[in-house]
Write a structure and sequence with these properties.
183 residues; alpha/beta; Rossmann fold; six-stranded mixed beta sheet; globular; Small_GTP-bd; GTP-binding; P-loop_NTPase
């Protein structure tokens, strides 16, 4: 009975749907904020380096997402852990053209995934900037990040471009399906 009432109230917009918390992380200049606003409004916006965070409510499929885009500068990364609680999934964005910093990205990803508060969080890696010359493919990025060594975690990697939108739907569809099956 209670479930029926809440469905009716939700359908009428009188009952707030629970938001699923998603973090967008990655090194600076990976395209995290561009991705956030591609998800939110479906277009590319002019961005500046994120000092702190951006947060937006995004409706994707039948899920209400609370999407947190955290700055990726070296000085900001230690504060990422302050946002880990109650996170259903992490979207880790890689600049696929920045070969010199793949090792740093791998180290940051490994440290993050070792955090207890993210133990149950799914991981979607977006190998971004595929529209740029010299971009490494998803296979090469996966190898550099040692994703094949991950155990007891749902993860996927998708080659994408936050600028032209290619690959974003594929990755987000996987994320939504995975988060829904875990809840």
């Amino acid at each position: 009975m209670g479930a029926s009432v809440s469905r009716v109230l939700t359908g009428l917009g009188l009952w707030a749907k629970k938001e699923t918390r998603i973090l967008i992380l990655g090194l600076d200049n990976a395209g995290k904020t561009t991705l956030l606003y591609r998800l939110k409004i479906g277009e590319v916006v002019t961005t500046h380096p994120t000092i702190g965070f951006n947060v937006e409510s995004v409706q994707y499929g039948n899920l209400n997402l609370s999407v947190w885009d955290l700055g990726g500068q070296t000085s900001i990364r230690p504060y990422w852990r302050s946002y880990y609680a109650n996170t259903a999934a992490v979207i880790f964005v890689i600049d696929s053209t920045d070969i010199d910093r793949l090792g740093t990205a791998a180290d940051e990803l490994a440290a993050m995934l070792n955090e207890e508060e993210l133990r149950d969080a799914s991981l979607l890696v977006f190998a971004n900037k595929q529209d740029q010359p010299g971009a490494q493919g998803a296979g090469e990025i996966s190898e550099a990040l040692k994703l094949g060594e991950l155990r007891d975690r749902n993860w996927s990697i998708v080659a994408c471009s936050a600028i032209d939108g290619k690959g974003i739907t594929e990755g987000m569809d996987w994320l939504v399906q995975t988060v829904q099956s875990e809840s």
